[in-house]
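User: Here's a chain of 132 residues. Predict its fold as tokens.
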Amino acid sequence: MQTLRKLIWFASVLALVGGAVFFAVGNQAQVPVYYLFGRSEAQPLWMVAGAAFALGGLAAWLVVLWVVSRAKLAERRHRKHAERLEAELHELRNLPLARDTTSSLADEPARRVAPGPPAPSAISPPPSAGGG
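Assistant: Prediction complete.
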């Protein structure tokens, strides 16, 4: 399997170099390059195309490097946040329970009373309209 990988890699590199040589031989024409502020001397077309390809590859590599570095920083920030939450959870799990173990009611679960209207005895009667 390792030999097959090396053979495929070698064949790929050989094809790439062969294609580059074939392109260079076929594009020997001299062309001037016009920039925003001026122009260069005439250069072989294959050199101009190769330089454009290299600059495009460099620009793409820089963009990928920026995106990957941002993703790694975000991953690191999320991992540290998860570690802090796990540490907090561990601390909460180790806290003692807040129950009164001396009371006889300690075995009963706490009952919650839902808030509702006040008891009838607490409601005062409406004032009389007759005065007296």
